[in-house]
Input
Amino acid sequence: MKTLPKKFFKRKSKPQDVAKNILITSCFTILATIVAFWFFYTVPEQSANIVLVYITTLVLVSRFTTGYIYGITFSLIGVICVNYLFTYPYFNLNFTLTGYPITFLFMLIISITISTMTSQIIEQNEIILEREKLLMEAEKEKMRANLLRSVSHDLRTPLTGIIGNTSTYIDNAETLSEHEKTDIVKQINDDSNWLLHMVENLLSVTRIEETSMKIATSMESVEEVIAEAIMRLRKRIPDVALNVQVPETFLMIPMDAMLIEQVIINLVENAVDHAKSTLPIDLTVIEHQDSVAFHVKDYGIGIAPERLSSIFDGSPYTPQTPSDIHKGMGIGLSICKTIITAHNGSITAANHENGCLFTFILPKEN
Amino acid sequence: MNPKYSVLLIEDEESIRSFISTTLKSQGYKITTAACGQEGLHLCASLCPDIILLDLGLPDIDGMTIIAKLREWSSTPIIVISARSHEQEKAKALDLGADDYITKPFGTVELLARIRTSLRHGNQFAVGNTPYAPIYRHKELMIDYDKHLVTLAGEMIHLTQIEYKLITLLAQNSGKVLTYSYIMEKIWGPYIDNNNQILRVNMANIRRKIEKNPATPEHVFTEIGIGYRMAECEQ
Output
């Protein structure tokens, strides 16, 4: 409250603002006078109504103009109008009437109070906006920190494997049997494939613009995106068992196809690698009124209930499980979350009786 | 027996160069490598290879420029090797005259398959074969160009005029990816606008007629942001 007047005086009013405020004030003045005249001729004996009309208009003027000056001006005009037009002697200014200064004083108080409240509302809106901006900033910062944490964890594991295996090979080239050598190379191959997967995930995030968390979307056909995601997935896991269902109608929704493919690949890969699904994984797309839902359902071991709430945070381990029990559950899901959030969609995880169900929902319109 | 095909590989990364040469040599190809674009262009002119593998990110000349320069005088098939995530770049390379592209990282199986496909398409004219086999066959799908007939497991499929034109265009280039703009121009003529929605709706309709599950197609594949590819015709 104390800072308000300062703020008010500091704010430089632009010429168009001044013009707008003057216009509003004059419009209300004319309107109030017309209404007052109407009252004056229909119910001349109730002159209190006329004052009420001006007071109501004063409230409106103070509310819809910025700053005090217009409200005060209007209260002056109002007092003069009532005095000049509607009090005996008509069309004559007479300041000797009893109670006149009190009317003026009250109108002044009302106008100042309302103007103060208006500036306060504007001020508060600004504060809320500022706070939202800060929150978004913090969210982004958190996302980045989580990502970095899981990346450093998840990259180190396969790299250690590769370095270890290659140095074993170099140091013991003569003593290793052919079979052992093949094993080592296979291990290196596995680890490098894993690294590639990781890097592709990371690269996909670079498509999301740093500052605004926005992505360039275009209208893409859902079935084509699903088909390509499966094709890319089959390169890594050729014999993945999947039941795919898409709506019969041809669906196009705005998205970055590469990123959504990455999400589908991550979710299905998780279902294969971590859930140890016993039945084919269900990948189902369902069309809703103004969104499209993608479900990835596995029939595996499910997710520990205490992990469900933080599963998209990118924390690579829980206190109960050692950190390197399995590489890379963290990064994939936190990237999914980042991608879906950037699409203005939502992603959730839940357990069902025989496994878990990941769902992400994308809006049909931008 | 196949004559020994000669391959020119233009790639600046040494490890990739050595891995591709080893693989291709073991498959009986004759391979020459170039580490930069300038050298590649010279070798191309002097050796006249049967096929060119071209990395887009070269230190001296932009890959796109090389494609454009080569296409001024040569119709040798070009397979572009590129890093993922730049669909527009791939589409541009194809529209400039590259025959196919392969995305890093790729397996040797995939690379060999692409080379075979491109060689086959590139050689049809050289050897004097009829440009297209009269019948396209892949799994249960059959297209008889002379009879204007498309069948799936012996059942006749009813396609609209546009759908038939589309599927034959893809089938006659089976194994190759055709870009949106190429297909649009071939089917709707040069004055069609850039919006490819109409193409995608038609493709969706075709998919519903010839695929068991449109989300796991067996015959027509989508390369998002680039175009469509039809499965290689079975011999």
About this structure: The longest helix of chain B spans residues 108-127. Chain B touches chain A through 22 residues (CB under 8 Å). Residues 124-130 of chain B have pLDDT under 50 and may be disordered.
